[in-house]
Amino acid sequence: MKFKKILFALFCLSTYNSIGQSYTFSTTSAAYTNLTGNTSLNGTATWDDPIFVIPIGFDFEYFGEALNTLYLSDIGVGGLLTDTPNDFGVVSILQVYGADIIDRGFDFNVGESPTGSLSSISYKLEGSIGNRIVKIEWNNVGFFEDVFLNGTSNSNATNFQLWLFEVDNSFEIHFGPNSITDSNLAFDGNPGTSIILTEAVDLDNGTLGANGAYVLLGSPLNPTFSNVTTFAQLENSNLNGVIPNGSVYRFTPSPLSLDEFEISELMLFPNPASKIINITGLKQKEAYRIYDNTGRFITKGTFNIGATLSIENLTNGLYMIQFKNGQTIKFIKE
Fold first, then answer.
1. Given pLDDT bands bounded at 50, 70 and 90, which one contains residue 333?
2. Which helix (H) or strand (E) is 113 found in, with range?
3. Which CATH architecture has domain 258-333?
4. pTM of the complete model
5. What angle do CA 258, 263, 266 make, to 5 degrees?
6. Beta carbons of 262 and 252 less than 8 angstroms apart
């Protein structure tokens, strides 16, 4: 299973009131370099299904949601990040590497140990404000079946990094040298690993959100970027082979189409406005997001009934405010 705590595959969809943010995909190559001056997450401790908190260092938008922290979650198998520490409810998931990875120094006779690690997980923040990159590295990681069967004589290993870019909210996965010679030991009988982007997964009932998930399929040299809508499809979303050293997979958020905003009958005034706006027609406190006229996410918050919303910090132009219930209103800042 790609998400090990979801032990079933339902074929229905749960619908979440969200805008269909999507990504474009490209592949290139670059020399792989191990991080230096990085902060270790595991130190000298061995790990299996690790749980770590990773500070991003800036607000990074993933499917339009601004995140300042990522969580390496044990709902995956070592290479799965989420937007929340919870292992229940609705979460966003970025599965950087879907194979069941493990510390190559892990000893099944004693379990996790405070010493003996041969595989480090670390991160580093680089660059100046507005152009920062946070890099997360999995170094010399092994594979569960290989370590379980062969102990410290295991021979299959790989290296990879995730780079998050502040400037445009894109991200890249960089793949380094590997010694994968047995796909059965590395990928549990699958031909390769899986890489998955999901805006919403309901962990309680095993369903995807309305926008499904994005996966990579086919040749690791030139994968096909596909949208899937069921867990049955997700289960078969593997690459057909080992990702070569120096490969870089880049994911760039696509601007939203204005057609994706469903205009509601809520009332907003004044419109145009320069400092504050009022909204009537809400029946309860609602979370909201504001997008500009290109569909780019600007900010988010919670609107209370009878409250006002300051827009002084927005530049002049056309905006959409979308509430969690799906209702959207256009307004002009002047």
1. very high
2. none
3. Sandwich (2.60)
4. 0.77
5. 145
6. no
